[in-house]
Amino acid sequence: xxxxxxxxxxxxxxxxxxxxxxxxxxxxxxxxxxxxxxxxxxxxxxxxxxxxxxxxxxxxxxxxxxxxxxxxxxxxxxxxxxxxxxxxxxxxxxxxxxxxxxxxxxxxxxxxxxxxxxxxxxxxxxxxxxxxxxxxxxxxxxxxxxxxxxxxxxxxxxxxxxxxxxxxxxxxxxxxxxxxxxxxxxxxx
Length: 189
Prior knowledge:
The chain is of the alpha+beta class. The chain is built from nine helices and seven strands, in the order H-E-H-E-H-E-H-E-E-H-E-E-H-H-H-H. Strand 6 and strand 7 form a beta hairpin.
């Protein structure tokens, strides 16, 4: 199974189970920006505790998804994995936090079609901001390169006021200004 096939399979399962989600991480930056190779998928899902069984059932039996791990995600780091047993590829699921930016990302998600499947995905602006936030947590040229790739492709369509507002709140204004000025550029291979 390829990453593309894995993505389509996960979208179908999430949509069928009617679990509220959006695609984020490198697949979102690939969609909005300059694609790069990735080896996992990242979804943010709204999952009330009463829906844990529905989530596990939606991915069974083709995925190893431990119900206890899903339940543990209600505590930090608010994340669990599903491993596709056919390919050993990993899917990361994150539960949204009560922080204003997390709520805003969920509110602003957009519906697109990916490889013929309806999908919810983070906006280009939120993808950039999220990459900058992850870079602040764990310095990574990969995060900055992904954000720069989105800026390079989407620059004329980006909501600059929104980006600047949230960059200030999140403490990533310097990095955003470096991105927007072209000082940080996408990685060239």
